[in-house]
Amino acid sequence: MDNSRIFLKSIFTEHWKYMAIASACKIGLFDCLYVGALSCNEISCALNLNKKALQFLLSALCNAKFLSVKNENYQLTELSELLTECHPETLKYACLNWSGEHLNAWQDLPQVLANGKSYFENNLGTGFFDYLCKSPKKLHHYHLAMSEYAKDDYKELPQLIDWLQHKSIMDVGGGYGACIDLMQKHYPQINCYLFDLPDVVNQVVNSCIKKIGGNFFEPLPRIAEAIIVSRVIHDWSNDKALIILKNCYNALPTSGVLYLIENCSDLIDIDLSLLSLNMLVMCESHERTSEQYKLLCQNVNFIFETQIKLNALQTILIFRK
Fold this sequence. Notes:
Layout: H1 3-11, H2 15-27, H3 29-32, E1 38-39, H4 40-47, H5 51-63, E2 67-70, E3 73-76, H6 78-81, H7 92-97, H8 101-107, H9 109-115, H10 119-124, H11 128-133, H12 136-153, H13 157-160, E4 168-172, H14 178-186, E5 191-196, H15 198-201, E6 210-213, E7 226-230, H16 238-251, E8 257-263, H17 273-283, H18 290-298, E9 303-309, E10 314-320
Parallel strand pairs: 4-5, 4-7, 5-6, 7-8
Antiparallel strand pairs: 1-3, 2-3, 8-10, 9-10
Helix pairs in contact: 4-5
């Protein structure tokens, strides 16, 4: 058979494996096995699942190396251990993040390509983040997923910059505070503030971080010498991005510093085209080049100073007021 036909037939069903893994996360299968190996019948009883259907899922997960089986008892592997709720490095909600609404949004891609509006605007008459805010559970799971990614993304951040030049730092749109929490632990002498929606910051338990509830489309508190805006601007169109950046500019003192952390498509070897399509169907936004981010910031009077590579994907763009 022609190699091109073989390749095409295989790519058509690539999502099957992911959906099996995501479904196992959703029904609590990996969590059920966290305490030890169980038989299909024991799992079926514990999770109230159809035994015959469950057997198909267990076999698929074994084939994908997410479970192993010995003497008809199934147990976790190194991969599935990372998808359990109790694991300190869990990626369970990062896994779940790409099912559900994301799959629905991608199925609406032809309509999005026709009118440029997101799946949520086309079908629900609202934006993605407004949609999340209507469901506390969905909002919570989204921010858990973002925090799981952030644990890897920000590991090197405290060492890359002389943060002690600032007496205070505010993380704007910082979710559950993975970034500012890391900064506070490395530099307890710096006043660290987390700014996000009230329903978001109210979930944060770190008492050393000063939590401020609000909306970054409205004026921000003028309390910090430096502001971090990480993986926020890529969620928004240029018009809305400019509002956020202008509010950051107004909140900073003279010579205050903005640290903008984003994937810059011109500074990495990874193609971001599919990620831009995802941003389009979800948020009516896209990934940008470093020059496009610089232009946005300069349009609200920030002065670009320098840029520092954070990791394989992300760059810190540094601006001064």
